[in-house]
Design a protein that fits this description.
Length: about 450
């Protein structure tokens, strides 16, 4: 049965809050801890369905993982060659990151694996990882057209490659680097547009020699990972919805504590500030080796912008939130060079354009972006029934848009919010948003 939300105009957002742990970092932390030597402790682990699915798969492959408290994991690493095959399929759920990174990691094992996912993940392109991994010698079968399920065959003789990634994707880069741990020779990945570097920095934290700079990473196979302790900062992508909500609801004043602000993730801050948002980074520091800060946001009148294409990879998950900010800005906001949004958990360009139009916002959709005609600082949307398409970020974006609504907004198919932001509805309503389960 579909989990639906009812959202409507709420109060100004006030208070202080911690958003859940970073999803990208949580996936990588549990994967690397699993194949490290010794016991690693992870704090701030995202208790979301995506990252729990990855941890469950590693347990299925023979790794002992304890969860002494919420957000904490103790991982008893089995070493690079200590995983055991599982006859049962490995279920990645909704997680593209889980599936693509595991595909790299499992390509160089001495056993076969089958990776499966939910309906959304089963529609997501895997050729982008299969192609470079095959060049490394991996043998991977996919459903016709390069879709899950993936059958990865045993192979203990991977060869390093020098790979220039045709798509700006941290998942593709990471899959190749993880396979590179098991390959003989030097694996190099180059990217025309740099993407998040968590795999690189975490490999270094686990003691694997790696050279990297924006757009390039190089490592050799045959080293060892040594257990370490990881602190996961708050997920900027989860903070994004609250940043936009507080920006567009007059009178809001909100403090989001311990948010990761890696520059490869914070393109939305650049965009929102260019639109006139009032967001201050307080108490900047390193958290688990990553730049983090408390983000203090107050409402502000926004104006539309032409988003520079270069910033797109740095905010690839934040477009649903940006579209809502644009809907309440003065003037138009133009997005180009964002065709990747069509192959996320849903087609986010189509999903956001359809939803915003139903709310009364004019949106011109193009093949690789959209132009949103903002309603202005005093504008309101009207009540409507919206389909989140089972996409967590569409559901949260629509709930934020409803805070400036004249009527009731019903949002269908919201259960997948638990993949990245469990209990978003309770946390958001505690801050002032009007949002509840239907
Ligand atoms: C992620 C990379 C991005 C992002 C996803 C998480 C990661 O995907 O959209 O939510 O953890 O590496 P792509 O690599 O497909 O752009």
């Amino acid at each position: 049965m579909s989990l639906d939300w009812i959202a409507s105009r709420g109060r100004a957002l006030q208070g202080e809050v911690r958003v859940p742990g970073d999803k990208s970092i949580s996936h990588r932390a549990v994967m690397l801890a699993a194949i490290a030597e010794g016991t690693s402790r992870i704090r701030g682990f995202l208790e979301g369905e995506d990252t729990r699915a990855t941890a469950a798969i590693l347990q299925q492959l023979g790794v002992r993982i304890e969860a002494p408290s919420a957000g904490e994991r103790i991982v008893h690493g089995v070493g690079l060659h200590g995983l055991h095959g599982s006859a049962a399929p490995l279920d990645c759920g909704n997680a593209g990151t889980g599936m693509r990174l595991l595909c790299g990691l499992l390509s160089g094992q001495g056993f076969d694996s089958t990776l499966i996912g939910d309906a959304s993940l089963s529609r997501r392109p895997m050729a982008r990882v299969i192609e470079p991994l095959t060049r490394m010698g991996a043998s991977i079968e996919a459903f016709e057209g390069g879709f899950p399920p993936l059958r990865i065959h045993s192979n203990k003789a991977l060869q390093a490659i020098d790979f220039e990634s045709p798509v700006a994707s941290a998942q593709v880069k990471s899959a190749v680097l993880l396979a590179g741990l098991y390959a003989s020779g030097t694996t190099r990945v180059r990217e025309a547009q740099p993407t998040r570097d968590y795999t690189e920095s975490m490999l270094a934290a686990f003691g694997w020699p790696i050279r990297y700079s924006p757009g390039e990473a190089t490592l050799e196979g045959g080293h060892r990972l040594r257990a370490t302790d990881i602190v996961v900062p708050g997920d900027f992508s989860s903070a994004a919805f609250l940043l936009v909500a507080a920006s567009i609801v007059p009178g809001s004043d909100l403090l989001l504590r311990d948010v990761g602000i890696n520059p490869r993730r914070t393109g939305l801050l650049v965009a929102l500030r260019a639109m006139g948002a009032d967001i201050v980074e307080e108490n900047p520091r390193l958290l688990g080796g990553e730049p983090a800060a408390d983000l203090h946001v107050r409402s502000a009148a926004l104006r539309g912008i032409a988003l520079p294409a270069a910033v797109v990879p740095d905010m690839i998950d934040e477009f649903p939130a940006l579209f809502v900010a644009a809907a309440f800005a003065q003037g138009t906001t133009a997005v180009r060079g964002a065709a990747e949004l069509r192959v996320k958990e849903s087609d986010r360009l189509a999903g956001m354009a359809t939803g915003l139009r139903a709310l009364g916002v004019a949106v011109d959709e193009t093949s690789d972006g959209a132009t949103i005609h903002g309603l202005g600082a005093n504008g309101r949307v009207h009540g409507a029934a919206l389909d989140s398409r089972g996409d967590h970020r569409l559901a949260m974006a629509f709930a934020v848009a409803a805070q400036r609504s004249d009527g009731e907004v019903r949002i269908s198919d919201c259960a997948n919010v638990a993949t990245s932001f469990p209990r978003f509805d309770a946390l958001a309503s505690g801050l002032g948003m009007a949002l509840h389960i239907a």
